[in-house]
Every structure is written in structure tokens, then in C-alpha cells.
Amino acid sequence: MRVADARTPLVGHVSGAHAVRLATLWESPPGLKGFITTVDHKKIGLRYIITAFIFLLIGGLEALLMRLQLAGPELRVLNPEQYDQLFTMHGVTLIFLYASPILSGFSNYLWPLVLGSRDMAFPRLNALSYWIYLASGLFLYAGFLTGHGPNDGWFNYTPYALRDYNPGPNEDYYSLGMILLGISTTVGAANFIVTAFRTRAPGMSLNRVPILVWGTLTANVANLIVVPSVSLAFFLLWCDRQFGTHFYDPAFGGHHLLWQHLFWIFGHPWVYAIVLPAMGMVSDGLPVFCRRPLVAYALVAAATVATMVLGFGVWVHHMFATGLPGLGMSFFSGASILITVPSALTVFAWLATIWYGRPVITTAFLFFASMILLFVIGGVSGFMTASVPVDWQLTDTYFVVAHLHYVLIGINVFPVIGAVYFWFPKFTGRLLDERLGRWNFWTLFIGFNLGFLPMHLTGLFGMPRRVYTYAPDMGWTTLNLITTVGAFLFALGVLLLIANVVLSLRRGARAGANPWDAPTLEWSVSSPPPPYNFAVIPTVTSRHPLWEERLGEPGAHSSLKEGLLLEQRRETLGTTPVDARPDMILEMPEDTSAPLVLAVGLTLVFVAMLRLSGWLFAIGALLCAVALLVWLWPRAEMGEREPAHG
Amino acid sequence: MAEVAVARPQSLPVGPVGRRGLGWWGVATLIASEGALFAYLLFAYYYLGAAAGPGWVLEPHPPLHLALPNTLLLLASSLVAWWAEHGVLQRARGQALLGFALTFIMGTVFAAVQFYEWHAKPFRLGDSSYASLYFATTGFHMAHVLVGVAVLGVILLWTALDYFSPRRRLSVSAGVLYWHFVDVVWLFVFATYYLTPYLGFGR
Fold first, then answer.
1. Which of A31, A641, B167, B201 shows its CA 20 to 30 Å from the CA of B69?
2. Has the ipTM of the complex gone over 0.90?
3. For the whole model, what pTM was predicted?
């Protein structure tokens, strides 16, 4: 069958027969087959969210064990080796397996819906990205569960991580697991970038996309460029450990600081990558409950990009205590201080949105609004450590631990839980319980601040991070006990969230399409959305397609009920990168198991590298090659080739 | 009630037509990421070389008698690949087949010469950080050459199956783009490992 090179797409209204036709095209088959082969961004997004949430719980449990150990001086809940593995896995789990994937999950689910499209640009790549993420998580935990978890901290400095000082397989699990995860992050980043630029609804020019899109896009441009740095760092480490190379060995011309550079060239932009999308959630969610558009949209979007650009030039502030030349440190110190400007700008935009709005206090609002406070606290302590002399005093103390938890819990976990309250009705069709939500919020908020605000003092009083215990006469006992109490209160808050989710899934109030009376496209479709998202591709003429009437937007309004039907196959509209003018009809792929097979093949390759097994490597590589060939084989029905002759 | 704007595009391409398609963007993002990988590898070279000082480069004057012709061969293969792609655009299938077969062979010869280079080096992987970096960087490049050659082989097969036309040929253009990348990045590797020592870096 030959696909016409070009056609004029039909425009029509939403109708029952049309919806049925689209449903048969887009629905994944039920049961195991559908589970394995689906490329639906909504299913993949929810998988990401659930998997990342499970890792949040695991990382949290690890924290609680450590807090028990530190509750008083000279306790023996854990031995030093267990403590080493726990603080390392705690960091690895929450930074790599929770903080970034949870945001990918939300963006995966939401992007096509807020952009007015029927799927991500590369649906199969999306499935691949998830499967590899899952595999890398299992890979990292395989080491931990067999007693060989990484144990040199999440940033894993050499020489500790070299074989002479760490002869077990612990660091090999970490190195290879991180490279595997890097593949997932990279293909995911490519998918987000192309989706943002090429699959927006007609009329949704770049200055009309929600800030969540700006945040996730910026973060993923950064990921695309910096993830290779950490993958390379871990690969070179693995070579030093297994094949006698000398990248990090000063005795043979290597350098320990090469590790630190490669790690932090990745590590610091990454820190912004795991907060910018969450800040985007706040920028989009908060105004809904303030009943007005975000103040200074353009500046907030520009600040998002500026944060990332500056974020490439701050990595050395993790290395102020390594004896680098003063001039170089001054540059990175200056950049680290300068980066507070776009952050402050965003904070003022949020405050002005609340100030000029008519806030409706919901649980989601509380999470979003409280995030502003936590962001300011974490920002100020970050600003302090950006100064070289202050950093010399504070580095490797609990002050830094307090700072990074304000940043990561404050700017990632709080907005994410706010986002759960905000978008849960879209995901499931039911609202979370507001009364339980208040309990949930206040428990988390009080628990968090009780745990981490005093920790600044613990650090100022000189307690170093990553020690498994301390002497009773150091003056740290009371502060540590308070932190432990706060940590358990926080854990109770997380339990309340789980309880709310479980109860509301069954008994929550029906949400309807737009329970919050929100302005963006995802709220124009049913909750949960149909497999094809939009029966007709909407046309967008403003940032607030659902609020145009009341805002009195001048000119023609967005069209939600009439638009392109695109019903010949799985199809969606490709638009131009900046102005989003219709550019082409995109033929979208069917469900396929190729991504899963490729992920299994890759995992085998990495297991083979861990075991140094040639035959296993060959099997894995062969599986990858077959999966790729099947995946990329041009298909006439998608217009990728001419139909075969004869 | 305000008027409603509905996008009513005229005739639109269906699926990838020419280079216009998401696959081309996908390969471009892949290249951006892979390019960054090589930038970090070269960063490691210059960082360690600058920190170590004189005597770090184990071959003060890296022999060029194989590396230079091999570099020219790889560059020429990019031209041939472009000529082959042009064959698809001109519906000249013979030219396309010949071109892709030639590119495939040139890529394979480059890899073979590079394997010989490795074998002939007076140092081994574990001799020093310079030796480790030399083999790691050229090794990463070799991996890309092998993938590129495999891609060229598949494109050759698909061309032989008469899959492509001037309009339906995104796989060809994306594959050739990747091959250009493999060749361009070699120029940076070559300049770093084979030419900068002549300028005195790390010698």
C-alpha cells in the first residue's frame, strides 16, 4: 500500500463515530501483550511516576534507618559498612532514580496533553527510556541487595572508588548502572526536545507553552549535553578498576580531580535539571488557584533558560576545597552567586501572582506556595556556600546536607506532591481527599522543617557529613534527636499521601474534565483522557485556551471542538519549531515489543560487562542489533519507504 | 462570543518526505549528545596533559604515515556517502548502490588500518594516563565507526531492495548525516592526538 506523499487534512467537529474510530486506532490491546507493547505516553508516564515513587519510598526508608543510627551518640543500629552503603544508596536512589524520573513521568504524561498532540514525538523511544530506567534501577539494587551496594557516597570520589581502596564489585555495580541509566536519560531527553519543537498544536508558538514545558525542555537540553560527562567518568572509572588504565591514578599521570570535574560538569547542571521542571509545575499550578494568569510569564520563561545557561558554569563550587587556583574559583563563585538572580525573579513572579490573585486554598496550593518559602531558605544557604571562604568553613558539614535537602525536598518533592494533588484527577478521574490532604501537607511541612532547619546548626557546630556516629560530648546530640523526630514525622506525612491515594482511587469524588477550572489544554479533555488525547487537533491562539472568554483576550479564540480529524492511521500534526504552523502529518508507530527487547539486550550487555563475560556480551549485543533492525526497518505504510515492487 | 480560529492547512506532507521528518531531528539530537561525549574525552586529554607537563605524550612525534592517509580516506568516504545520497535523490540507483558500497568499504578499511595502528603503537593501554586516553578516545571513535559501517551496510541493503525514492528517503539522509558526524569528530581526535604534540603540547 502506498501512502500519498501529501494530502489536505480534513477539518471537522468532535463526533461520536469519529471518537470510536480513533479509539480503535489508538487503544493498546488488553492484558500482558498491551502491557509489554504499549507506546501510549500516558501509560508510560504513569509507570515512570509509580516506579519513581517506589524509589522515593525505598530511599526514604534508608534515610530513616540512618536517622535511627544518628538519633543518639554512639548507637549501634548500623555498622560503618552498612552506613556507608545506606548513605550512598540513599543519595543514588533519590537523586537518580527518583528526582529526575518522577519529573520525566509527569512531563511524559502531560506534555502531549498540554501541547495539543496525540503522543510524544518518538513513542517507542519513550517506552525504551522507561524500560532502561527500570533495568538500571534493578541493576543498582542488585548490587545493594547482594551486599555489594556502592559505598563511597553518591559523588563517588576517587581514590576511594578505585580498586586498591575498594576491591569489591560495589563500585562496578554503580559505574555500569549509571551508564545504563544515562542511556535512558539521553534518549528521553532527545524525545522531549523534539516533542517540544515539533508536535505542538497549531498556533501554540513558543511564547504560548506552559512553563512546565519550558522547564522540562531546558532541563533536557542540559541532560542531552551533560549526561555523557558522567557516563564517561563512570566508564573510565570502570576501566581503571578492571583493565589497569590510569585515568584517575596520579602515579601514572592520571588525576583525581579529573573525576571531580567530569562528575560535577554533569552534576551541577543536573541539579537544575531536577528542579526546573518542578518549578514549572508551580508556575503552571499556582496561578490556577490564584484565579489569574502567572505574572511575568516571559520573564519566568527567560529565567528558566538563564538558570540553565548559568548552570553550566557553576560546577567548580563543589570543588572549592580542592586547592584550585583563586582566579578560576572566583569565576565559578561569581557565576554561582549570579544564578540567584533568575531564581529570585521567579520567586517574585510567584509572590506577585498570589498577591494580585484571589487565592483558593487547596492542598495543591499549599504545596506550591510553601515551596516558595523552602526554595528561598535553600536558595539562601546555597548563596552562602557560593562564597569561597564561607564554603571552606561549611563544606562536608551537615550545613551542606541541610542545604541540599531544602533544595531537593523543597523544590522537587513539595511541588511534585502538589502536582499529584493537582493532576491526580486528570490521571484517574477522581479527586484526592482535601481534608486528608491538609493533614498530609501540615505533617510533611512541619516534619520537614523540624528535621532539616536545625540541621543547619548541626553543620555550623561542625558535625561532618557521612560519619556513622558521634561522641556524646560534641554538643550534637539534641539537634540530631530533633532531626530524627522530624524525619519520622515526614515519613508519617508520606504515609498519609499513600493513604489518600489508595482511598481516593476507590471513593474519591468524580472529577470531571476540569475540576479546578484551569486554563490549559489538558483540562479540555475527559479525565482520564482517551487513548488518542484529542478527538480533533485543537488550534491555539493564547496561553490560556480555556480562559480566553473571561480574560477578554482580543482577536480570535482557540478552537477546541473543531480541528484536524487525522483519522487515517495513528496520526498527529507536526508543526514548525517556533511559530507552530502546520508543517506535516506525522505517522505514529503502532505498539511494539522492540523497545522492551532492546532494553533487555542492553541490560544483558551491562550484566556481561559486570561479570566480564564475553558470550553473554555477544548474546546481548545480538539481541540489541535484532531489536534495532526491526525497530528501524522502513515501513511503507508509515511513508518511510516506497512499497516493494512486485 | 469571539470568533474561533481553526487551522486549515492546505496540502501537507504525509510522513517523512525528503529530510523533513522527526527521524532527522532524532539523529541530530543523538549527534549533539555524542559530540559532547567526544568533547569530554578531549577535555580529559588536555586537562591531564596540561597538569602532567613535559614528557606526558609517549610519542613526541606521533607517526603520520598511516594516520594521515587514513584520515583523508575517512574524509573522502564522507564525500562518497554524499554522492551516494545524491544518487537516491537523482533516482540513479546504480550510483547510490556503488556509493554506499564504496563508503562501506572505505569505512571498513579505515577501521582495519586503525586496528593495525593500535597494534603498532609502542605503548599499551595500562602504560600511563596518556596511553589509556589514547586507546579510550580512539576506541570510542572506533565503536562509532563500526556502528556507522553497520548503518551503511543496512542502507546498502535497503537501497538494493529499492526502498527509496527522492521523497521517501529519510533513513538514507539520517544515516549519511550520522556518517558525516563520525568523520568530522575524527578530525578533532586526529588533530588532538596526532597534531598537537607537534605544536609542543604535553611533549
1. B201
2. yes
3. 0.97
